[in-house]
Amino acid sequence: MAGSIRTLAVQYFQLVDPPQLALPPGNVLVEPAVQQALYEHMFDETLTPLPPTTYRTRVLKQILARIEESITDPEEDEILDTLMDSWGNLVIQPKPSALQQAQQLSHIKYTAPLQSTPITERTITILESRGLILSGGTTGNRTWEAALHLGSFLASPAGEALVHGKRVIELGAGTGFLSLFCARHLGVKGIVATDREPFLIENMRECARLNKTDGDLPFYPAVWNWGTALEQTPEMGSMTEGEKLEFDVALGADLIYDTDLVPLLISTVHDLFSNYGVRLFIIAATLRNEDTFRTFLTACEDNDLTVEVLPFESTPAEEQTGFFHSTSIPIRTYKISRA
Ligand SMILES: C[S@@+](CC[C@H](N)C(=O)[O-])C[C@H]1O[C@@H](n2cnc3c(N)ncnc32)[C@H](O)[C@@H]1O
């Protein structure tokens, strides 16, 4: 698949907002071979998981408009029947209301940024409500930019080296995106994906079924409310030392959005270092509010935790090749260890 079609298809299955899609120029889209590739890789109804009808309709409408604008000779240039048939099928589908769309759980296929090795695509499918910012008392119904940023770092050789073969725990995992990526593609020994919301844990179990490979994924979702004891389940057997749960690395993305959360998060990190064997906490933060983040950094210093910024910058949005996310608000990744 040509690079520009690959980028567009990967963005499409990640349900990137249509105005942000990297549509090839009209003189490329008008080519019959390109239109056929678009059909085969994006609109063929046998592809799974297909994006919601409303989304597919919006994207195809944009593509068809661009092709039409570029038709200079109607005798020579045309829109392929396969794409027109797809359009015909889409427009007759019933459309959910804006509220239904916001609440709808969609299958979102995330593809990791390209690396020189491996050259195969690394994808995971997550069930999430993209439109829900806060619902059921949690912000964990959708995958946030900091998780996509941290996922991009972990997909790089330097990032993978930090988790490969390790026992990992994720805090506030939300949709489970990061943990599933680690379990499916980064060779972790095991990963416990935690969140305080039981319905998010159930959703992660469903996502594990969606991403099942030949063997069982070393992915163990578990309810954990910071400040309480983490309950061990039989499936976490590979993460125990004697009778005790032990981890090497902890992960967290977008956990510091309110200063009120900082003391509890800090004491939880302390608990992980003191009682669960963790030696490294890798956390990605979207710097929406400098004061909130400074409160966290100061609390780390006051608690003898060493904070190091990882030299991993966000790839500008137009150069991203996977785990597409906005970089309009800076995102930083930190390594926290015990001083
Ligand atoms: C902004 S979301 C981030 C979700 C995910 N890490 C991501 O970046 O896509 C914050 C997550 O932290 C979880 N959370 C907040 N406070 C928590 C607590 N006290 N104990 C456990 N999880 C908590 C929320 O339920 C939510 O899923």
TrEMBL record:
<dbReference type="InterPro" id="IPR019410">
    <property type="entry name" value="Methyltransf_16"/>
</dbReference>
<dbReference type="Pfam" id="PF10294">
    <property type="entry name" value="Methyltransf_16"/>
</dbReference>
<dbReference type="GO" id="GO:0008757">
    <property type="term" value="F:S-adenosylmethionine-dependent methyltransferase activity"/>
</dbReference>
<protein>
    <recommendedName>
        <fullName>FAM86 N-terminal domain-containing protein</fullName>
    </recommendedName>
</protein>
<dbReference type="InterPro" id="IPR029063">
    <property type="entry name" value="SAM-dependent_MTases_sf"/>
</dbReference>
<dbReference type="GO" id="GO:0005737">
    <property type="term" value="C:cytoplasm"/>
</dbReference>
